[in-house]
Amino acid sequence: MTSNPLGVETISTFSAENEEGAIAANYVEMIETVISSLEQDQSAMVSQADSGYLWKFQYGSVEVFVQLTGTEETDTLTVWAAVLKLPAKNEPKLMRHLLEMNCGEMLEACFAILNNEVVVFSCRTLTEISAAEISRIMTIVATIADEKDDLLKADYGAA
Q1: String of b and e for 101-125 (b: at least 16 CB within 10 Å)?
Q2: Dihedral sign, Cα of residue 68, residue 72, residue 73, residue 74
Q3: Residue 46: what are its φ and ψ, rounded to 5°?
Q4: Would you give the DSSP letter of residue 46?
Q5: Rounded distance, CA 17 to CA 24, Å?
Q6: How far apart are CA 125 and CA 69, in angstroms?
Q7: What is the DSSP string of 54-110?
Q8: Does the residue 34 lie in any domain?
Q9: Which of 30, 70, 119, 127 is the most exposed place for a label (fewest CB within 10 A)?
Q10: Measured between alpha carbons, how far apart are the two ends of the chain, in Å?
Q11: pLDDT 10s per residue in the chain (159 long)?
Q12: Per the structure, how many domains does the chain have?
């Protein structure tokens, strides 16, 4: 069993059986299609629980998590990838650097702190979400995390 930042305990091999109907199938199918285009070495895995779905996959040097909390318009799609463990060297300088990047370089994502790690993070409700938006959010988080993790580790890694 593997634990993750959202507390889902089991992650099984990549497959999704959907019992929630056509809408859920569409969201799950869209997410899995994007994951299959981004993942490396057949690394994708999924967990289904009462709280929704949680996927993880390897993209470059980062592990990307995708959570779908449900299929109602008020449910959310959340994507994140850890780029640096805390504590870090010179945290005040790191925090300023992250805030500066949040303002100009992050598109629909941002840097955040989750479970004592700096992550690239994006979250959106399902209201009027399209397949293109799902793909964009997942691609942005994966790409930025993979581009920034080594740089941040080199400059601020392990205090």
Answers
A1: beeeebeebbbeeeeebbbbbbbee
A2: negative
A3: -140, 150
A4: E
A5: 10
A6: 10
A7: EEEEEETTEEEEEEE--SSTT-EEEEEEEEEESS-TTHHHHHHHHHHHHHHT-TT-E
A8: yes
A9: 127
A10: 30
A11: 344 444 433 333 333 343 345 666 688 889 999 999 998 778 899 988 888 999 999 999 999 999 999 988 899 999 999 999 999 999 999 999 999 999 988 999 999 999 999 999 999 999 999 999 999 999 999 999 999 999 999 999 986
A12: 1
User: Which pTM value belongs to this model?
Assistant: 0.83
Q: Is 2 part of any domain?
A: no
Query: What is the C-alpha separation between 107 and 137, in angstroms, rounded?
Result: 9
Is residue 1 one of the residues assigned to a domain?
no
Domain range enclosing 136? 12-156
Instruction: Tell me the two tokens of residue 149.
Output: 């993790």
Q: What is the CATH number of the domain that holds 83?
A: 3.30.1460.10
Size of the chain in residues: 159
Return all residues near 3 (Cβ < 8 A) that are at least 6 apart: 9
**Longest distance between any two alpha carbons in the chain, whole Å:** 50
Asked if 140 contacts 37 with a C-beta cutoff of 8 angstroms, the reply is: no
User: Could you give the 3-state DSSP secondary structure of residue 118?
Assistant: strand
The pLDDT of residue 41 is 79
CA-to-CA separations, 41 to 1, 35, 85, 112, 135, in angstroms, rounded: 20, 12, 24, 28, 19
